[in-house]
Amino acid sequence: MTKQKPWTSPLTPEVLVPRLGDSLVEKGLLTPADLRRALEHQHTRSLDGKRILLGQALIELELIDRKTLDRAITEQISQLQEALRQSNLFLEERVRERTAELQEALDKLTELNRLKNDFISNVSHELRTPLAHMVGYIDLLSVEAFGTLTSEQRSAVNVLEKSYRRLGNLIDNLLFLSFDSSESLHLEPAPTRLQELFSKLVEQNQARARAGKISLSLEASADLPAALADNNKLEWALGQLLDNGMKFNQPGGRVHLSAVLDGKRIQVAVADTGIGIPADKLEEIFEPFHQLDSTSTRKYGGAGIGLTLAKRIIEAHGSKLTIDAHTGKGTRISFSLPITDKKP
Fold first, then answer.
1. In a domain, 30, yes or no
2. What is the average pLDDT score of the chain?
3. What pLDDT shows up at residue 287?
4. I need a labelling partner for 106 at 20 to 30 A (CA). Which of 144, 222, 276, 285 fits?
């Protein structure tokens, strides 16, 4: 690491170059008494509403001739120019040093970020191997390949299946997170019928909605044109938004998925009647591994990366997540997608 040099403030031109009066005294062209007299004359003229420079005061009092004064001023201007040049050189050198230090810090941050992403990706891939073995045996147990299951054993297998799916989803999320940014995500955009995608998502989440006594609905007209999007990644992102809408809701609440044509784009929204988000916490919800309630006794589960990844996917589509939320009154998250004339 480059050793940082101690900061030394540059001497400014006005410090390096004496004022005109002091300079004339130093050169023996004026006495201190003459200078005081000229300054008093300058002050008196300013009280009369006629502001004059010190040089003019000296000329009026005949304390110095014009030629000598012009020569002294020219010399002072040259000194000021040199002092300014030296000051600029000092600042330019300081800027070069700071730029090099910042570049070094940026390089280290980039390397750390790469190592983090490699670590997440490697761990995620390594976890898949034992999970593949687990799901194989879970499937065999589920179809009673090892013998008939009792009701208690069947319940245990169901718990194993749910836990496996949850862990599998978490691994998929970690793989998504290993991308540096939305630009790193590889999209395969194609004509996508949102009506069909919405119906699939609602069907997949209907059982959970009923279990939580939440009304899950959709709105997408049959004549809605196809959107240009990566179907799989869009489905994943919308699934996360629906998941949040149900997770942070209450019995009797509602989650509504909608798509409305707006010119050449389709406005997509997920609205819920849940707990909402405080205005000062809106930016925090997109931070990875962060939940607004981070206590050990928090009510809502999850790793805190769903919205982070959903945001990256939507931004990779060239759009932006917009949030309208009020504490205790629900949340509406929306974005837009371009339409396409191509057929799905």
1. yes
2. 80
3. 64
4. 285
Cα 306 to Cα 291: distance, rounded to the nearest angstrom: 11
First to last CA, the chain: 55
Q: Check whether residue 217 and residue 74 sit in a common domain.
A: no
Mean of the pLDDT values across residues 217-224? 90
In the chain, the number of structural domains is 3
Task: Give the torsion sign (CA, 196, 163, 251, 284).
Answer: negative
In a domain, 344, yes or no: no
CATH number of the domain bearing residue 302: 3.30.565.10
What is the helix (H) or strand (E) element at residue 198, kind and residue range? helix 194-211
Say whether pLDDT at 65 is over 80. yes
Write out the residue range of the structural domain in which residue 19 sits: 13-108
Distances, alpha carbon 286 to alpha carbons 24, 167, 283, 290, in Å: 67, 21, 6, 8
For residues 240 and 247, what is the distance between their CA atoms, to the nearest angstrom? 10
> Rounded CA gap, 273 and 256, in Å?
9
Tokens of 202: 């609602």
Q: Can you give the pTM of this predicted structure?
A: 0.52
Stretch among 90-99, 136-145, 169-178, 293-302 having the lowest mean pLDDT: 293-302
pLDDT score for 297 = 34
